[in-house]
Amino acid sequence: MSLTLLIEQILNGLQFGVMLFLMAAGLTLIFGVMGLINLAHGSLFMVGAFACASVAAWTGSFWIGLAASLAAAAAAGAVIELLVIRRLYDRDHLDQVLATFALILIFSEGTRWLFGSFPLYLDIPPLLSGAVSLPGGSSYPIYRLAVIGVGIAVAVGLSLLISRTRLGMRIRAGESDREMIAALGVDITTLYTLVFALGAALAGLAGAMVGALQSVQVGMGEPVLILAFVVIVIGGIGSIRGALFGSILVGLTETLGRVLLPHGLGLFMEPSAAASIGAAIASMLIYILMALILAFRPQGLFAANG
Amino acid sequence: MARNLITRENLITVLLLGALLAGPLVAVALDETFYVTLATRIAILALAATGLNLALGLGGLVSFGHAAFLGIGGYAAGILATHAFNGEPLILGLSGTKNMLIIWLVGAVSAGIVAAATGLIALRTSGVYFIMITLAFAQMIYYFAISWPAYGGEDGLSIFVRNGFPGVNTLQPLSFFLLCFAVLVIGLIFFAVLKNSRFGAALQAGRQNETRLAAVGIAPFRIRLAAFIISAMMTAVAGALFADLNRFVSPSMLSWHMSGELIVLVILGGTGRLAGPLAGACVYVMFEFLLGGMTEHWQLFLGLVLLAVVLFARGGVIGLLAGRARHG
């Protein structure tokens, strides 16, 4: 186990973490402002990836694809908010879970109908292909570094948006008292649609960026969705800071666990057993982490609403 | 609880059970054994959803992880049968078995232990946290099953010959159906007894008003934990039967889609109602069968119907047929 490998895996963990952050930020924003649990958030991730891959294949440009993914996910988000989600705000969580579960079925099957069952592939743009060298002689793909950069930029932008702008002020006000800000003359329905579309666009962005790293296929959003849930449970629902911290924690734990556990177990076990047991435990690691954190802080690390 | 037994809801329950029993008998007379399998599927899913209904309907515990318990029951059947088949001892020199009674016991106890461990953590929270935590724990078991190669990993585990029940020829579809039907009836009776017991009253009171429950001196935590464990055990028995029906168990039985489907069954039929899961399973399996025959994209239409039910038809099938639930 060399230092280079460790650095490489830490970078991988960070890249995975910021991607989770894009998902978790949208989820937690929507939950914080509207009190809604949205299982279909993973579908918006998928919409972003499919929009990016198909538009990039059609125009030959990754960047147009990226813009298309933001537009498509935001549009899909706005449409489902207008048609479905807004009827669910004052229902209980069970109804929200069920309705958004139905949306997953509709999105997944609809996408399969449009694009077929075969995965699409999305190439890394030429500008970001290639690698930079790391200390110790190995190299690391520029694209993954760019993903980390985008994630950090979004985190900074989002916190500025929420703490410094008029929209952010309304979002914060909506989190604490929705009747009051409606009474003050803020058009709360439009605000909700806007926040939902913003969360959707973040998921779409994550989908587009991940689409260049793995195949674009139906159902790709669901594993990410579950991890994003773990992130916001760990970080505290409704807290952007918690989402960022939780994402990085989960990203690093997941990535490093997969590498370090089989290595560590290999020290006192035979390699094949260490590999299979290590892999099995590594797949459970973040859930164990979640259980530990919740055992001490049931509301998560940075609980927003007490 | 001396209550009038001849209510509209009880009549509907008996009618539904009668129809479920009559269907396969007619099908066998007409030599259409496929419909027997369909009815068996309904009975098993109804049993699994009745288990969930205990936690979700009576206790208000929205568990999005019940597929884990279904899968644990399924894997109990698969693993014990595999060991009985190849003769290798399981652990501590114990051998596998093909006896369903032992399999159900092992499955239910394992699921109960897992439910106790996860419930202890999950029940410290409530609302949306509970939903997400149960989901996360179920995913943990799902990924464990996928990355554990000893029992098939992602490919799952085949049960070459359906497990046996003393005195019943389970290889014959009708006998297996009757067995599943009998277990379902026992499960429903158990649900009804539990619902009308003092335990059930406390559980439902905790759902409706936690403060009032605390005011009469009952702490909800232990009652909920007990309900969660019993609920998991019932679903696990259904899981073992499900594995025997398909003669196959795989991680997909543990997946969160399955958890979602179980919730759908409960809500489609009517939350907290005795025959809710049964009605839900009937509608769901028929729907799957009819739409699946028409288009390969049937899940799209299932999603649309589901959406319509959530948005416009609250109370489910039983709610439509028997009117609103009487709380009490």
Automatic annotation (TrEMBL), chain A:
<dbReference type="Pfam" id="PF02653">
    <property type="entry name" value="BPD_transp_2"/>
</dbReference>
<comment type="similarity">
    <text>Belongs to the binding-protein-dependent transport system permease family. LivHM subfamily.</text>
</comment>
<dbReference type="GO" id="GO:0006865">
    <property type="term" value="P:amino acid transport"/>
</dbReference>
<protein>
    <submittedName>
        <fullName>High-affinity branched-chain amino acid transport system permease protein LivH (LIV-I protein H)</fullName>
    </submittedName>
</protein>
<dbReference type="InterPro" id="IPR052157">
    <property type="entry name" value="BCAA_transport_permease"/>
</dbReference>
<feature type="transmembrane region" description="Helical">
    <location>
        <begin position="142"/>
        <end position="163"/>
    </location>
</feature>
<feature type="transmembrane region" description="Helical">
    <location>
        <begin position="273"/>
        <end position="296"/>
    </location>
</feature>
<keyword id="KW-0029">Amino-acid transport</keyword>
<feature type="transmembrane region" description="Helical">
    <location>
        <begin position="12"/>
        <end position="32"/>
    </location>
</feature>
<feature type="transmembrane region" description="Helical">
    <location>
        <begin position="97"/>
        <end position="122"/>
    </location>
</feature>
<dbReference type="GO" id="GO:0005886">
    <property type="term" value="C:plasma membrane"/>
</dbReference>
<feature type="transmembrane region" description="Helical">
    <location>
        <begin position="64"/>
        <end position="85"/>
    </location>
</feature>
<keyword id="KW-1003">Cell membrane</keyword>
<feature type="transmembrane region" description="Helical">
    <location>
        <begin position="184"/>
        <end position="213"/>
    </location>
</feature>
<keyword id="KW-1133">Transmembrane helix</keyword>
<keyword id="KW-0812">Transmembrane</keyword>
<keyword id="KW-0813">Transport</keyword>
<keyword id="KW-0472">Membrane</keyword>
<dbReference type="InterPro" id="IPR001851">
    <property type="entry name" value="ABC_transp_permease"/>
</dbReference>
<dbReference type="GO" id="GO:0022857">
    <property type="term" value="F:transmembrane transporter activity"/>
</dbReference>
<feature type="transmembrane region" description="Helical">
    <location>
        <begin position="39"/>
        <end position="58"/>
    </location>
</feature>
<feature type="transmembrane region" description="Helical">
    <location>
        <begin position="225"/>
        <end position="252"/>
    </location>
</feature>
